[in-house]
Amino acid sequence: MLRRWSKVVSPISKFGSQSHLYFVKNVTCQSYAGVAPAPMIEDKPQSPAVNPHKMFWSKPCSLALPPDSPLRVEEPNYQGIKRFMLKLMMFYSKQSRSIRGANVVYHRIISQVDKPPIYEVFNLEKTFKTTFSLLVLHMWLCLRRLKQEGNEGVEFGQYLYEIYNHDVELRVSKAGVNLLLTKWMKELEKIFYGNIVAYDTAILPEAKPGDFSNVIWRNIFSEDGSSTEDDAASQSVQALARYARREESCMTLTDIEALFSGNFMFTSLKHENGRGKRPQ
What we know:
Blueprint: H1 25-28, H2 80-88, H3 94-113, H4 116-121, H5 128-147, H6 150-174, H7 181-202, H8 211-221, H9 234-253, H10 256-261
Helix pairs in contact: 3-5, 3-6, 5-6, 5-7, 5-9, 7-8, 8-9
């Protein structure tokens, strides 16, 4: 039985470092694309050069989708006998609505994490390790916001966590891990909770200015969990830290209806380069 994500305790904070991903070392050496035949390489127009130093300085804003957005997902409004039968089957119960909403929220997360822009912008190789780490980061953003809504948010967060956990199990299997799957899932669970604790601690008002970027480095960029930031990756680390802080603020500004229905979108990374330049 899955333990509740809201009951995180301090002893597991030692798992905040991604060095504990060594047990999937053989998995992380291959990307998801690596399990399929290599595609034919075609000449494509080169994307504009990414300058991380210029990114994510803009003022936070709500991530809620406007009412007329084609990306919105609305509750089905059945009528007549069909609605009556669905009511009998508890389709419109609070729990059923929450589960549907949690599925939409998780779809928003994987839409941000599974697509190329996030790896291009932050100069990351798409491996099991980086994908899992980014997935946990975005789960943290959602769960942190949900906790602000009290018990209702915590309950919704539990549905979201169970969907996430099932998806991670499928990803591990897809990466070629079938033996000792339960053991590996337990290790990933420890890393998940450790990262949640590390992010929460590093974003506290009393935290040091560089604490959050240090956690981003250890959890996502570092290959061995070292606390010493690589100079070559410094701009990308700082950019991802700014992105995460900004998204956290944006989530706070996102209303409860958008949050529980999943009608919000994380900041698009396709058009972010060159926008929101750092104030002089």
